[in-house]
Design brief:
Elements lengths: L1 E2 L1 E2 L2 E2 L3 H8 L1 H32 L5 H17 L2 H9 L8 H34 L8 H18 L9 E4 L4 E4 L3 E2 L4 H35 L4 H40 L7 H11 L2 H10 L3 H11 L4 H11 L23 H10 L1
Parallel strand pairs: 1-6
Antiparallel strand pairs: 2-3, 4-5
InterPro entries: GPCR_Rhodpsn (IPR000276), GPCR_Rhodpsn_7TM (IPR017452), Pro_rcpt_2 (IPR002281), Protea_act_rcpt (IPR003912)
Subcellular location: Cell membrane
Membrane topology: Multi-pass membrane protein
Length: 357
C-alpha cells in the first residue's frame, strides 16, 4: 500500500487495514512458512553436506546443485523472523537493519535459486545433446557460480538504500516491506520490475528452451529397450522440473510485476494480498528442490543413508560386496591368447544417466 507520510508514521487505507489484519496474512501465510522451514531445513542441509563432504568427484552438475541447496538453505534460515512477524499481526519488532537483511536474503536467494535451476537445465541439455564433446570443467562451473552470487547480491544492494519499515498509526504496528511511503514509491517500482525480468523471465525462457531441446535430442536418439526406459524417466524428470519451476515462480512474479506496475501509476489495486499468497506458495520451491534434484538419485540416497549411519564410503562398498551371493563354477575358461579386448563407450546411455542424476 502507498500512503502519505505524516510525522513519525502513516495512516493506511481501509483496504490495507483489512489485509494486515486478515487471517490470511496472520495465520495462513506463517503456517505455510513453518511447513517450508520444517521440511526444507533438514533436507537442504543434508543435501549440502553430501555434496560438500560425501561426494568425492565434484562434477559440474553436483557443483550447481550444491549451490542451489545453499541458496535454498540461506532462504530458509531467515524464515523464523518472517513467521514471527506475521504471527505478531504483521508487527516488526526487530529493527530496521534486520528488516533490510531479511528482505535482501528473501528476494536475493529466490532469484539465485531460479538462476541456478536455469544453469542446471543448460548443463543437462549439453550432457544429453553433446555427450562426446568436451565437458564443462569444474573450475569453470565454480567461476560461473561465483559470478551468479556476486551479480545477484549486487542487485540486492538497492533494497538496503531505503526504509523498509513503516509505522502504521491507525494500527499501532510497524510493517516490514509491506507498506511504502508515497515519496519512495518510484524506487521499488523500477527495481522490482527490473528484478522480475532479470531474475524470473530470463531463467524461465532458458529453462523452457533447454528442456525443449533436450527432449528433441532424446527423441532423435536410437536406443535399446533399457535405454528407452531411462529416456522415459529422464523425460518425466524434465517435465516435473519445468512444471515445478513454472508453478512456483510464475504466479508470484506475475503478481509482483502487476502490483508494482499499478503502484507506479498510483492506481488503487487490490492484488497485494494475492501477491503475498503467491509469494508464500512460491517459496515452496525451496523445500521441493531436494526431492526433485537430489533424492531421486539412488547414489544420493545411498550417501544420505551412509551419512545418517555414520558409515564411510569404503565401508559401504565393502558391505555391498560382502552381501553379493558367491557364484561357484566348476571350470573357468581362459580367454584365447590371440584375441584382444576392447571397450565400447555408450555416450547416449551415459548422458541419460546424467540427465536423471
Amino acid at each position: 500500500s502507498v500512503v502519505p507520510s505524516s510525522g513519525s508514521g502513516v495512516n493506511v487505507s481501509d483496504t490495507a487495514v483489512s489485509i494486515l489484519n486478515s487471517s490470511l496474512t496472520t495465520v495462513f501465510i506463517p503456517l505455510v512458512y513453518i511447513f517450508i522451514f520444517i521440511v526444507g531445513l533438514p533436507t537442504n542441509t543434508m543435501a549440502l553436506w553430501v555434496f560438500l563432504f560425501r561426494t568425492k568427484k565434484k562434477h559440474p552438475a553436483s557443483i550447481l546443485m550444491a549451490n542451489l541447496a545453499l541458496a535454498d538453505l540461506l532462504f530458509i534460515v531467515w524464515l523464523p523472523l518472517k513467521i514471527t512477524y506475521h504471527f505478531n499481526g504483521n508487527d516488526w519488532t526487530f529493527g530496521e537493519p534486520l528488516c533490510k537483511v531479511l528482505v535482501g536474503f528473501f528476494y536475493g536467494n529466490t532469484y539465485i535459486s531460479a538462476i541456478f535451476i536455469a544453469c542446471i537445465s543448460v548443463q543437462r541439455y549439453w550432457t544429453v545433446a553433446h555427450p562426446l564433446s568436451q565437458k564443462l570443467s569444474s573450475r569453470v562451473t565454480v567461476c560461473v557460480c561465483v559470478c551468479v552470487w556476486i551479480v545477484v547480491w549486487v542487485l540486492t544492494v538497492p533494497l538496503y538504500l531505503y526504509d523498509q519499515t513503516v509505522k502504521i498509526l491507525n494500527l499501532n504496528i510497524i510493517t516490514c516491506h509491506d507498506v511504502n511511503r508515497r515519496n519512495e514509491t518510484h524506487f521499488p517500482v523500477g527495481y522490482f520490475l527490473t528484478m522480475g525480468t532479470v531474475g524470473y523471465v530470463v531463467p524461465c525462457v532458458v529453462c523452457i528452451v533447454s528442456y525443449l531441446l533436450t527432449f528433441l535430442s532424446l527423441s532423435r536418439s536410437i536406443t535399446d529397450s533399457s535405454s528407452s526406459k531411462k529416456k522415459r524417466k529422464a523425460i518425466v524428470l524434465m517435465v516435473t522440473v519445468l512444471v515445478m519451476f513454472l508453478v512456483c515462480f510464475t504466479p508470484s512474479n506475475i503478481m509482483l510485476m502487476v502490483h508494482y506496475s499499478l503502484l507506479g501509476v498510483e492506481h488503487q489495486n487490490y492484488v497485494y494480498s494475492i501477491y503475498m499468497v503467491a509469494l508464500c506458495l512460491g517459496s515452496m520451491n525451496s523445500c521441493l528442490d531436494p526431492f526433485v534434484y537430489y533424492y531421486i538419485s539412488e547414489e544420493f540416497r545411498d550417501h544420505v543413508k551412509n551419512s545418517l549411519m555414520c558409515r564411510s564410503e569404503r565401508t559401504s562398498k565393502q558391505m555391498k560386496v560382502s552381501s553379493r551371493p558367491l557364484q561357484v563354477t566348476e571350470e573357468i575358461p581362459m580367454p584365447p591368447t590371440n584375441t584382444t579386448t576392447s571397450t565400447v563407450e555408450h555416450p547416449i546411455e551415459d548422458s541419460l544417466n546424467a540427465a536423471q542424476d
